[in-house]
Structures
1.
Amino acid sequence: MINSVFMQGLGAAVVAGLITGVGGFMIFLKRKYSQEDINFMLNLAAGVMLAASFFSLLCPAMDRIRMFDPDVHVAGFWYAGAVFAGVALIWLLNEVLPHEHNTMGHHGLRSFSLRTAWLFIIAIMLHKLPEGLAVGVAYSAEDFINPHSLVIGIALHNIPEGLTIAISLVAAKVSKLRAAFTALLVGMVQPVGALVGLLTMDFSDKIVPLGMALAGGTLLFVVINEILPETYGTKKTEKSAFAVFAGFIFMAYLNMVLD
Ligand SMILES: [Zn+2]
């Protein structure tokens, strides 16, 4: 069923995905980053992704899964199961991925490992799939969801997410250009999700909320288990907390005005 709705939905998801690259290239705004800048930015990114997991994934998924079954316990079981599956999935991945030895940098600071960066990026990549799916579903069910506001919302929140990806790679000593391009590539997961959404319209309205809950679980796990402990090791907890809240509040604001 290749029709105009299909092309519109796919096109919108491609544009939204590309915007992730815009965020990634924002890493060039500053010429050089000190370890302190990087910690600050990682905390900012943690706040952004905490807000994204609650406001864009966990909360809307809860509302939709509630409609699965009139029995709240059954719906609650599906919801809790999906979040748990997300946590378990990324935890397993964490176990399987090879561990590096923690090296002490010459300033006595532990350098952010590439492995941690990739774990974070995989979690971000996973959550872009249900977001893309949602775009696809919105375009094929235009009567009850406004696809344009959804796409604008996803496109705009892709900017801080793209920057987040680039920040975590730069923190792991990857070059800025590679970091920015990786953000762009990760953004392309969204049109893949949209394609799946457009092709599987008949049952994807059930898959989307479950996928959102699962993705919320994976993101929360990486933020809580990897990102926050990494940056909180450097004593200046007040500055770290401030950065987390700045990221969280900014994303909350975006969510509010774009809804
Ligand atoms: Zn997102």
2.
Amino acid sequence: MKKLFLCLLIPLVSFANPIPLGHPNKGRLEFGRNLSRLIKENSEILRSVSPIEFQYGTSQMAAALLEIGTWGSALQRVPVWIGDISKKQGRKLAQHLTHQRGLDADIAYLVHVPKMTGHRFNKFHNRFTEQFGLQGKLGENFDLEANYQLLGHIVAELEVTSVYVGCGIYDALETHDKKQTVSIMKNIFAQKGHEDHFHLRLKCPQGVPQCSNNWWTDPSKTHKKKKKHSASASEKYRDC
Ligand SMILES: [Zn+2]
């Protein structure tokens, strides 16, 4: 009887499903899955540019990365470079406000020719090598069509709350988007600091009530802060 119990217990422990908890900016991860291993096992479509300890995530993130690699492959722009996701147990990661629950990932833009060295090449994490959309120039190596297609798949086919791209990149994507019959821009936002990668945020998986898609605000500080004049409903978030 004891043996049977152990046989049943061991698979449960080793395959425990990752559970994201809390808010995007204040959360943690239980049973975080090693996505660095997943990336390595799929090296024809994905490439890691962050250390193992910064690449843990949920099952949904694992599936999303494989989809992204597959779309990158169809666009002949692989491997897709994957940077920071989360620590094994989540919580604060380096300078990031988010990346606390295995639901956020930093991913390089698709380029015509991958640049093997560059501005963050020697860093510990997020070793991205090229920035785009600065000083009014998108950059010749930025594959606008391929990035537009990839982001289109991401927002349409994954359970995404938001995608953040650099401001100049956003403007180029938006110009391209206006020529299309259906817009993909609803959940894509301009935010400075995303010149060398885009930030993907997945929704909380269903059935996890302790996981919130909403931002956490410190209740002890809210009364001191003057309420910001709220943007009109038609005004889109933009941090440039
Ligand atoms: Zn990020």
3.
Amino acid sequence: MLFTRVFQVVEEMLNFHGVSLYYGLHTPLEAVALTYIDFSLPRESVLLVNGHVGSGKTSLLLLASKLIKPTIGEVHLEPGIRSAVVFQLAEQQFFCETVREEVLYGPRNFRLPGLEDIYTETMKTVGLDPAEFSERSPFKLSGGEKRRVAIACALALSPDILVLDEPETSLDDLGLCDLLSLLREIRRNRTLIIATHWPEFYLDITTHMLVLDRGLQAFFGTFQDFLLDYSEKAIQTVTPKSPILERARETLQQTGQLPNSLEQVITDGRGATC
Ligand SMILES: Nc1ncnc2c1ncn2[C@@H]1O[C@H](COP(=O)(O)OP(=O)(O)O)[C@@H](O)[C@H]1O
Ligand SMILES: [Mg+2]
């Protein structure tokens, strides 16, 4: 036992050590969701998890948030780190009568002090008027407002890691632009892990990239390295050729840096301004 720890690696904020995940192990329904996932993520990163439907994105997010345990390997979080998840259709999980109760449900459960301040501050962060929405039903909001309340519910727990499962799902252009500005705001002092089919949308906030191919880790690295390796076959079977990613790579190759903002690229052809 003593000798197994002699060559201990330096742990980052979140570490996956040789993680595999099976559902229904030793049953006729046994299915492998993830195979030998191995990476370390530093503090204040923005990690995109990209992959086709069924490639294991949601499973990976659940493991990263410690909501489930790996079958093989280890998920290690720095001690004291708090994570919160916004599920793909988080609004389907609303169950309180008012927005205020919905947002404060988690903090109440954790017996956090200062509920009034938590409510006001989180609502302001997600760009909703605390007083105006306080008594409204979360079920009767617009799609974009629902998504903001869902994010507020997670932020109310002051998580160090915020995990979002395909947050762009079923938002219109305006909702997408709001989402992007909100993520730019809340990434400060925080780590974000975002599962997505649409990596270019998050281009200007992304620091790291994990590409999953049928449960296998096709790529993990910095976003710069992802762009430079982007023509690799392993990545392109998952992340299709995209003019936006191509342009980002050109800028990186020419200047040695990622563009500061790709807003104009992102909005090209979409008719929206983020
Ligand atoms: N609760 C579950 N029981 C059995 N199999 C599951 C369960 N959840 C996911 N899977 C399977 O695990 C694999 C990965 O699923 P998931 O993590 O949801 O991928 P993604 O989010 O990329 O679509 C898929 O083959 C899926 O069918
Ligand atoms: Mg999923």
